[in-house]
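#struct-pred

JT: dropping the chains for the assembly here, can someone run the whole complex?
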Amino acid sequence: MTTADSLDDSFHVFDTTLRDGAQREGINLTVADKLAIARHLDDFGVGFIEGGWPGANPRDTEFFSRVQKEVTFRNAQLVAFGATRRPGARAADDPQVRALVESGAPVVTLVAKSHDRHVELALRTTLDENVAMVRDTVSYLREQGRRVFVDCEHFFDGYRANPEYAKAVVRAASEAGADVVILCDTNGGMLPARIQAVVATVLADTGARLGIHAQDDTGCAVANTLAAVDAGATHVQCTANGYGERVGNANLFPVVAALELKYGKKVLPEGSLREMTRISHAIAEVVNLTPSTHQPYVGVSAFAHKAGLHASAIKVDPDLYQHIDPELVGNRIRMLVSDMAGRASIELKGKELGVELGDDRELVGRVVDRVKERELRGYTYEAADASFELLLREEAEGRARRYFRVESWRAIVEDRPDGTHANEATVKLWAKGERIVATAEGNGPVNALDRALRVGLERIYPQLAKLELLDYKVRILEGTHGTESTTRVLITTGDGAGSGEDWSTVGVAENVIAASWQALEDAYTYGLLRAGVEPTE
Amino acid sequence: MTTADSLDDSFHVFDTTLRDGAQREGINLTVADKLAIARHLDDFGVGFIEGGWPGANPRDTEFFSRVQKEVTFRNAQLVAFGATRRPGARAADDPQVRALVESGAPVVTLVAKSHDRHVELALRTTLDENVAMVRDTVSYLREQGRRVFVDCEHFFDGYRANPEYAKAVVRAASEAGADVVILCDTNGGMLPARIQAVVATVLADTGARLGIHAQDDTGCAVANTLAAVDAGATHVQCTANGYGERVGNANLFPVVAALELKYGKKVLPEGSLREMTRISHAIAEVVNLTPSTHQPYVGVSAFAHKAGLHASAIKVDPDLYQHIDPELVGNRIRMLVSDMAGRASIELKGKELGVELGDDRELVGRVVDRVKERELRGYTYEAADASFELLLREEAEGRARRYFRVESWRAIVEDRPDGTHANEATVKLWAKGERIVATAEGNGPVNALDRALRVGLERIYPQLAKLELLDYKVRILEGTHGTESTTRVLITTGDGAGSGEDWSTVGVAENVIAASWQALEDAYTYGLLRAGVEPTE
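RK: done, full complex below.
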């Protein structure tokens, strides 16, 4: 098993998606989202996960409490972010500093001012007091047994304005016991040549261990991060998919890919890089942003080739036309006007699911056509394995697996004069030759439909009782006419046994209720198939 | 008037959006699109516009014919792209080369192989013949009075494999009369340090005038372009918004912004940079891609600030928190409202919206509290400006703006035995002392509610007739219990006048229909407020 020990401490991959990444416009993370992202980041193998600012808001405080109870990290250490003590007070008496200790995180990143004008205008204190604030707070946290990193905010702008003062802050942090001092290009205006020169000078002049935190305002955050490493930085702060304030932060994925594949530097546990594409997309899913199709290394277009000039040469030697083997990062080559990739992946998928497709090229072709036709209408099978397996079995076995037939259903949502809502659904079904009419209420129309379906079927299929809807996602496709768009619903269902073997189903329709119903039907059909029940219809 | 003469020939901004940019997955340009983009690029002030490959396809041939009749360039020169002659033939006899001359473009970019293995595997000729092909084709085009640039394809990979051969191709091109030899990182796998070293060496060894063409596969195309300039390249090839094959090309906008604002190098006509945001969005509009919100310099988020921490200091001195004045690139600062925000950002936002909060600290405190409380329940105001403004006005004016009161509503979705769906909604409202009951059908329950609301109100508020729902987004929050989660809906509404002034509203409830209803209520209330209608309730 990969453990945190498999990589030594000499180089740090530090992720701040949950803190700085959450500053991105359009991201609004719940505690559950933060826990899910932390699990993905740890799976990926980053060394440090900065979880937020405990004490600054109830959500971050709750995250620190829950993550330590609910998540066992295999690779990462948990980091709390906070500020140096207030001017004129003792660190031990500062409630914000105490909250960092009380968070229980073994590592603390302190943000410190290193730009003289920021000290005066934003902190409204003297330059000397700011240095004392850094020294005191680091010392106090070290006494409390915490490992301390110090983020020098606005370092590069500060260095231009007053290099001696900026370096004095680095020295104070390092001398007080900070393990790494991170030079931050907070406003993101730097270019690589300047980053490299400043990091080299500060390293020579202070001897402190240095890290880099780059923002992407010039479109150079990845290059700036690598330039700092070239100059001797041994700690890189990044965010998944480059999420962050304004344009964003240095993107974790191209940074680690460059270090591993271009520098030949081992910065992740063995095998992690091959999970990169999956992890990138999974995190995008949690924050509810469409994964960028054109993201370096992990975008679906990153290894896509338009047919033409070099199509034939790619067949001879693909390495002539790609800078790395896409499998190294869990991505794949795509030929944009060829269904060869489609056939191959369907054959592979059939093998993976244990559905025998044999050498039946016609059958595979039928599946390819049906998937293409449905994806054109908005279905996505990448995220709906169970719906895909049902489709595959239907084609392979010549008929759909059916446990019930739907005659009709109805959902009513009513907003009453007292402000409460009534949600009621009725389903009319046939199962084992019997006509079933069932009605149920719920906290919404989909929930009411779900309950009515169970109420109707549970006597005939008691296996349904333990199934549980775990996740429900809605995406509006082609939003050019508002509510007249197509709606896609993805539902994740579990067997309630905590086996961790969930399955996902998809529905697409002109409205959210009809799309949800399709995904529900597939979810229960697959649940029964999975439980070994024989189809009856 | 700005003319091409206002910038000398010592540095070239060369745009290849219409040729290499069009290789992007998802872009498919008509001749009219290409003409429109060419106009925008010339307005912006690039020195060269590569229009395509005349003779390679009818569209590009037609473009070259029409652009010279229909467009008068103020700044740019038109460039035709093509390949060196075929092996074993005369350049003058090669129809592909003749098509370049016949295109009428005063400048030709020739693509040449400079990687030995590509010569052997893709061209299937000898290394010497390839050099002869470069020399002959350049000489022939020079005799025909054309200015010639040579793109050395796969140069950096070729240089790694066989540096002497790669340089021999550069020399042959330069000696035959090519004005600029462009070193291309065709597979995009390079990092800035390597680019800089190779460009410096080739420049010293060949004495040719060099250009750079970078692809973004490592996320470093902008930095790679600048690294080449640092090493002495005086010609940069870019595409608008970084469009291009796979991940994309070096993005024109951050490249020229860095050169003008960071290097202090005049590469565009006076005043052009201030048009950059507009031009970037206009080109995205033509190619039918949503402008990237997080693009450096020109994205709508590029100067958006979220954190409360920064907001208080931004009031004191905005330059402390932005790397450039956004007006320099035609963009603007935006304050986002979120639960991380404090009083300062609410005050700034009030100012931006023209709602006077004055020095009423208690009022601002009330707004902050209400925003925090609502964001905890799942509302998000950073993406719902109109809902925020309604909230702000309600607190500032002591009462909500109301144009109607809702007694109750009901939505019914019915799946009928024939497989069709019926969606029907009824609303019961009061407006101007009158009780209104209205029913409508739609293609989904939200659409039916939207129509019922309009049917009911349009007689009293004819202004509602022209409002249009433009976008509809659903997000499930805290998805731990599937359909029992909270649902957030964001709706974007426009006034149908094509003014581009849309507004967004938010609703949060235990189910998607109730959440949509809230967002619809806010959308119409804001639409009436915006139209100057006096509240009646």
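JT: nice. Residues 1-5, 479-483 of chain B have pLDDT under 50 and may be disordered. The two ends of chain B are 56 Å apart (CA to CA).
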